[in-house]
Amino acid sequence: MSSYANVQLFARGRNPEEIRAAALASLRASLGGSWIEVPPGEPCERVVLIGPAEEWIAVYDDDAPDPRPLAAMLSAATRAPAVSITVLDGDLLQLTIFRDGAPAADATNWPGYFRGAAPPARVQGDPAAWSDFIVPAGDDALLDAWQRGTEPEPATAVVQRMSALTRWSPQLATSGARTLTTRAGFTQLCLRRITTPAPSGAPHLDLLGGSPGVTVRTGDTVNVVVIARGSGSAPSMNVTFSGPAADFIQPRSITLTAGGHAAELTLDATGTAVVPFGPAPRVELIAAFTAVASGSGLLRIALQPVGGEEAVREIAIRID
User: pTM score, two decimals?
Assistant: First the structure.
C-alpha cells in the first residue's frame, strides 16, 4: 500500500507569487550548514519540490516522511495557512492545519490505527476549522466527504473528496516527492549533504534545517522548528535555549521526537531540558514561545547527546 506526504500552502485571496517566493526563500534558508544545493543533473541525496504559484502551493521533501515540521516552518515564514497531508500504508490519513507556525487543528480517519482499533465511521476532526478552505463554505459538505461507506476505504479516497471542496489539485494532494509524476511549473532543489559523518558508534547530530528568522509583535507566539539527523548511541540528550532573544520570550510548549519516542520538555533555570532518550535517524524539535518584550537578537538552540558534541541552530528573532 502507498505512503506519501506533502504540504499544501494556502494562497487564495493573496498574491501567490509572493507567498511562493517567501516559501522558497524559507526552504533555502532552512538548509543550514548540512546541505548544499547542486546544479541540475548532478547526483543529489535529497529533493525538495515547490509547485506553481496557485491558490494552493504544493511542497514536497523526500527527506521528511512527517511533513508537519515543514508545514509549521512554511506557515510561519509566509504567514499563510498550511495543511500537512500524510497517508501511511494507504490506510491512515493524518491532516494538520498550521497557522503562523503553530498547529491549529488535526483530523484523522483512524485515530486508533497504532493501537489496532477499528476505524470510525467518519474522519475525526472539527469541520469548522476548515471553513476558510471550503468552496462553497459550509460544514455539511465536509462532513459528507469525511463519511465513509459501510466498508473500509483507502485514505486517498478521503483526500480526493476533500480536494473537490478545498480545490486542492487531486494529483498533487495524493502524491509524495518520490511519486509525483507531473512537475510542470515546479522548482526543484537538488541537495547534497556536506557534513562529515561521525565515527561509527559515537553519538552525533547533523542539523538538517529549521525555522528561518522570525518577526512578531509583543504578545504573539514565536514558533521554532529544528530538524536533525542522529547517529550513534546515547542514553539521553540535552536541549538548551540561550542567546539574547531568550530574554524576550517565555516557553509555552516544547516537544522533541526521535524515532518512536516523544517528550514534552520543561526548561530549568538555565534554559536546559533533559530528553530521556538518545538520538535517532530523525530528530524534530518544535517549540512555541510567547513574545513578552520588544527587542531583537539570536535565539541559540543547542541539541547535545550525552557523550557527543552540540548541534547548534541560531534563529534571528525580532519582537516589535
Answer: 0.64
